[in-house]
Design a protein that fits this description.
The complex is a heterodimer of chains A (about 350) and B (about 290).
Chain A lengths: L1 H24 L13 H18 L12 H19 L23 H4 L2 H10 L15 H12 L19 H8 L19 H12 L8 H6 L3 H12 L14 H13 L33 H13 L7 H8 L4 H13 L3
Helix pairs in contact in A: 3-6, 5-6, 8-10, 11-14, 12-13, 12-14
Chain B lengths: L1 H20 L11 H31 L8 E8 L2 E7 L5 E6 L1 E5 L4 E7 L4 E4 L7 E3 L5 E5 L5 E7 L11 E7 L1 H11 L9 H13 L38 H14 L15 H10 L3
Parallel strand pairs in B: 1-5, 4-10
Antiparallel strand pairs in B: 1-2, 2-3, 5-8, 6-7, 6-9, 9-10
Classes of the chains: A mainly alpha (about 350), B alpha+beta (about 290).
Chain lengths: ~350, ~290
């Protein structure tokens, strides 16, 4: 009797395995994207995805100033070239080819109603398996991921930049200006660096660093990776000769900060082992800067602050990376803000 | 004092031998209350107290600043992992700064003000004086005198971090005349580069921003974080006693000092194109 029970159980197991092999391995299961899932399958898969996102996103804390304008501005630019091709956007209908994916990427104008900020962050950063949603191309740039989340939260309300209503990734200045402002002069909220008048050697090296993965960015790396060597040189030469817009006059509220910034630029802070910024970059007194170093005068404070924080965290690579990392490691929040305010106010 | 110490040692050895070898009935007095009171308590108390008083008197001469005496004053600051050396005038003003090397006149007292910029280091030139700790926020005075000309090696003797073992320096004792000549040269500006190649090296040095941390007197470079390089080419060693100062070693240090001396404060410049570090190194090597 007992032997018989075992025999039946064994046969049943073998049968299931054989069926599974026949179905999956043998090619009977139809993977066609043209054939939608059964309703029940779709429901189960979607629910599993939602639960997985909710589970893995616990413990993620959004930055307190998530909806800050310069963060949203950075998100807008990337959305147009990185997200809209599949998800569509306020100015861009969803691509017809993409609509035939299985599952088709959802439009995102209501994404913020369905997902919390930390869930959106998790999805943008890690992607979703089996759906075609890719992970963020740089795994140490959470600041960029939050920028996209910030934009998603107010997407219907803020149209992409007027300069280039439907941005496409291309090797033309028009494409770069979509984020970097008209004639490379920077966006209204200072999210991106002003390219106009920047050192040519620095611009070319930066694009190559992005393309080769020496400098990490989910926004810039895909753009730079698509450029040829000749296109990199052409773009660098194009922006280097443009005249930058006049420097942004400091608000009175930051005047005290710029004085601290000026002191750091001229003399550093020897007591905390911070060398003078002006020994390599502009010193506000007309020092000739090595063309391989970036010109900082007139760069927007939000961009400079962001970069100095990345340096300090040790996640900003690129050419002279080890040198700046060694310097920025010792900067306080107050010093970073003061330096950013000072360089923003410095005329080119 | 040596004779006294030797006599006491002999006495103790003799008593030990006596206690071991003598017959039990004759050695009994050794354990008496009287022997223990006089030999075990009174005698050590008197001799050790006398020694302490003598030691304090001698130490006062070593550690108190001299007044109105002909001494060379030098401030030495221990830093991770090198020595900042500042020559002072009679009023305590800084005449000039150098690093990892202490020049001193033979037969004349040198008064060192020792302190630290970060953690506790310890200053020791075994051939010249005992060790003395360099303590952050405190200045310890050490007076020493070299009796013979020569180069003496010094070493940090208080564990101060990953490169403690490679925190060495050289003390160079010079005869009075040679010392005065050295002092005159060392307090002046750096030599002008003699060739176009060396001028190019200086140009690269200044434009790259080396002056953010290093000083070369007479050029725009006035950094205070790292060693002064005004006469680096004439120094005994590179990297605080690590290797001789040659253009090759300097170039290797610029390109990746973290490989040579991991944990020092200088970032690597391995991104410089071929020839640039070498040009800077040749310029630095020419600074004699």
């Amino acid at each position: 009797m007992r032997a018989k029970t075992w025999l039946i159980a064994g046969l049943a197991t073998a049968g299931v395995v054989a069926l599974a092999l026949l179905g999956a391995w043998g090619g009977l299961y139809n993977v066609a994207a043209s054939k939608p899932h059964l309703d029940v399958t779709r429901w189960a898969l979607h629910q599993a995805m939602r639960n997985s996102v909710a589970f893995h996103a616990r413990g993620i804390v959004p930055p307190p100033d998530l909806d800050e304008p310069s963060r949203v501005e950075r998100g807008v630019g990337h959305y147009s070239i990185g997200c809209a091709p599949c998800h569509g956007g306020p100015d861009q209908a969803q691509n017809l080819v993409v609509q035939h994916m299985q599952p088709a990427p959802p439009t995102l104008d209501e994404a913020a109603d369905h997902w919390s900020a930390r869930e959106l962050f998790w999805i943008v950063k890690h992607g979703v398996k089996y759906t075609g949603m890719p992970a963020w191309p740089a795994n140490n740039r959470d600041d960029e991921v939050w920028a996209v989340v910030a934009y998603l939260r107010q997407m219907p309300a803020s149209p992409p930049p007027a300069e280039s209503p439907s941005l496409r990734m291309s090797a033309t200045p028009e494409s770069c200006n979509g984020c970097h402002g008209p004639a490379g002069g920077g966006g209204p909220h200072g999210a991106t660096p002003r390219l106009a008048g920047q050192n040519e050697a620095y611009l070319a090296r930066t694009l190559r660093d992005y393309a080769q993965g020496k400098r990490q960015s989910g926004i810039m790396a895909p753009v730079a990776h698509a450029l040829s060597e000749a296109e990199i040189d052409r773009l660098a030469a194009h922006y280097a000769v443009l005249t930058p817009p006049p420097a942004i006059a400091p608000a009175t509220s930051v005047a005290a900060g710029t004085r601290l910034g000026e002191r750091l630029v001229r003399a550093g802070a020897p007591e905390s082992r911070v060398p003078a910024c002006g020994a390599c970059h502009e010193d506000g007194q007309g020092r000739a800067v090595d063309p391989r170093y970036p010109r900082l005068a007139g760069q927007p404070a939000p961009y400079l602050t962001q970069q100095l924080r990345l340096w300090r965290a040790g996640t900003r690579g690129g050419g002279f990376g080890p040198v700046m990392t060694a310097v920025a490691r010792k900067l306080t929040d107050e010093q970073i803000q003061a330096l950013a305010d000072y360089y923003e106010s410095l005329p080119r | 004092m040596t004779v006294g110490g030797a006599l006491i040692l002999l006495l103790v050895l003799a008593l030990t031998a006596y206690a071991l070898l003598a017959a039990p009935e004759t050695r009994g007095w050794l354990g008496s209350r009287r022997t223990i009171l006089w030999g075990g308590i009174a005698f050590p108390t008197v001799t050790v107290t006398a020694l302490l008083i003598y030691g304090l008197l001698v130490a006062r001469g070593i550690v108190t600043p001299a007044v109105g005496e002909d001494v060379q004053r030098v401030e030495v600051v221990g830093e991770q992992f090198w020595w900042r050396v500042r020559y002072l005038d009679d009023d305590g003003r800084v005449l000039f700064e150098t690093a990892n090397e202490l020049h001193l006149p033979v037969g004349r007292t040198v008064e060192l003000a020792l302190t630290s910029a970060d953690v506790i280091h310890s200053f020791w030139v075994p051939a010249l004086a005992g060790k003395l700790d360099m303590i952050p926020g405190r200045t310890n005075i050490l007076r020493l005198r070299a009796e013979r000309a020569g180069v003496y090696r010094g070493q940090c003797t208080e564990f101060c971090g990953v490169q403690h073992a490679r925190m060495a320096f050289h003390a160079v004792a010079l005869e009075a005349e040679a010392y005065d000549a050295w002092l005159r040269e060392a307090s002046g500006p750096a030599v002008e580069p003699a060739t176009s190649g060396l001028r190019e090296g200086r140009e690269r040095f200044l434009q790259l921003g080396c002056g953010a941390c290093h000083a070369v007197r007479g050029t725009g470079a006035a950094g205070v974080l790292g060693p002064d390089l005004t006469r680096i080419g004439s120094r005994q060693s590179l990297g605080a006693g690590m290797m001789p100062v040659t253009a090759e070693n300097l170039a290797a240090w610029i390109a990746d000092s973290q490989h040579l001396k991991p944990g020092n404060l200088m970032p690597p410049f391995d991104m410089l194109p071929d020839g640039e570090a070498q040009a800077i190194a040749r310029y630095l090597e020419s600074l004699k």
